[in-house]
């Protein structure tokens, strides 16, 4: 826009404003006021607090909090985290087997194998869902519904340990040791909104989705550290320590009606069974002659909804009896084939 000055007085006024602005910009900055004297005994800025060892790092200031103040975790209402039933049968600290490969030797008959057995405490929220933008093709994002399970795991100590007595017999004592939790979360869909073949099961393994982890943390508790399945085993869990984690799944069939989540790694209890007949035919038999069974926690869920509006408030704990089939509890300890 063009401005036209129509009088001499206007020209003088404009020239005065330009001159004044130029003069102000040309002035040096004003001297800073002298700092107020500090009280005696005050440490200089940046110095470590009294009693701190020289060279020790300064305390970090958490985001949104004062120096040295820990941010409070989000307080959960009673009953939000569902507990699991105590594992009253730990699988035993020993088992007796004949070593099939050495079955021709008398000393290989009925060998006793002993081990320490631990069981971690596990609590969880029912499976929840969240829409997250996930990178797809280069330069594109795809919006996906992520299913996730938020949980906490605690090492209560009291690991069952076999102790040999002087007379050669064994008793079981409890010892406190750190435990490394190596989790694996497998979702199995048992029933969908259609007639499927008998024994139908669709399996989803949990996946590490960094963008989903960040979004879920922002929703659940920004001040708490949540570990993925792959980050959890990085350090042992000390006795009495609790770690929090999140398992995530993507591309889950929206027609699911009831499903289970198997949690592996909460205990190291094992069983195995040998089949001597298969071992004798191992040159021609494809199947293994030794079968290993691992003890794991099974979480059962029911979702009375349809595939058009999949919402987390449809997910219920446990499975009701239906179609002449008995219901399932919200959680149960089971033995499953490991490999």
What does the overall shape look like? globular
Largest sheet: 7 strands, antiparallel
Gyration radius (Cα, Å) is 33 Å
Strand content: 25-35%
Total helical segments = 3
Fraction of residues in helices? 10-25%
Supply the helix-strand structural class: mainly beta
How would you state the average pLDDT, rounded?
77
Runs in which pLDDT lies below 50 for 5 or more consecutive residues are 1-32, 38-69
| Extended strand count | 17
Number of domains: 1
Order of helices and strands: HEEEEEEEEEEHEEEEHEEE
Q: How many angstroms does the end-to-end distance come to? A: 80 Å
What is the secondary structure topology, with strand pairs?
Blueprint: H1 8-26, E1 82-83, E2 94-97, E3 111-114, E4 121-124, E5 128-135, E6 141-154, E7 159-164, E8 170-175, E9 184-192, E10 202-205, H2 210-220, E11 226-227, E12 242-249, E13 256-264, E14 270-274, H3 276-280, E15 290-302, E16 316-317, E17 331-337
Parallel strand pairs: 11-12
Antiparallel strand pairs: 1-4, 2-3, 4-6, 5-6, 6-12, 7-8, 9-10, 9-13, 13-15, 14-15, 15-16, 15-17
């Amino acid at each position: 826009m063009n401005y036209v000055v129509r009088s001499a007085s206007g020209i003088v006024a404009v020239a005065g404003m330009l001159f004044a602005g130029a003069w102000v910009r040309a002035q040096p900055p004003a001297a800073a006021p002298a700092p107020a004297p500090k009280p005696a005994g005050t440490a200089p800025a940046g110095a470590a607090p009294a009693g701190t060892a020289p060279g020790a790092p300064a305390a970090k200031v958490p985001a949104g909090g004062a120096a040295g103040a820990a941010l409070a975790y989000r307080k959960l209402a009673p009953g939000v985290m569902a507990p699991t039933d105590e594992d009253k049968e730990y699988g035993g600290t020993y088992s007796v087997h004949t070593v099939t490969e050495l079955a021709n030797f008398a000393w290989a008959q009925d060998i006793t194998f002993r081990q320490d057995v631990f069981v971690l405490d596990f609590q969880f929220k029912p499976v929840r869902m969240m829409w997250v933008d996930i990178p797809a093709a280069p330069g594109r994002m795809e919006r996906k519904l992520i299913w996730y399970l938020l949980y906490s795991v605690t090492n209560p100590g009291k690991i069952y340990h076999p102790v040999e007595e002087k007379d050669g017999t064994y008793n079981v004592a409890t010892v406190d040791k750190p435990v490394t939790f190596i989790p694996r979360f497998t979702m199995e869909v048992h029933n969908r909104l259609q007639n499927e073949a008998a024994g139908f099961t669709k399996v989803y393994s949990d996946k590490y989705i960094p963008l989903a982890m960040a979004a879920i943390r922002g929703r659940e508790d920004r001040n708490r550290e949540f570990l993925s399945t792959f980050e959890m085993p990085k350090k042992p869990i000390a006795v009495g320590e609790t770690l929090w984690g999140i398992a995530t799944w993507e591309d889950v069939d929206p027609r699911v009606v009831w499903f289970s989540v198997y949690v592996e790694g909460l205990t190291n209890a094992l069983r195995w069974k040998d089949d001597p007949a298969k071992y004798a035919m191992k040159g021609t038999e494809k199947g293994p002659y030794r079968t290993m069974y691992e003890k794991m926690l099974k979480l059962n869920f029911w979702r009375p909804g349809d595939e058009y509006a999949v919402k987390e408030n449809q997910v219920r704990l446990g499975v009701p009896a239906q179609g002449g089939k008995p219901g399932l509890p919200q959680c149960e300890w089971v033995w499953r084939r490991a490999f």
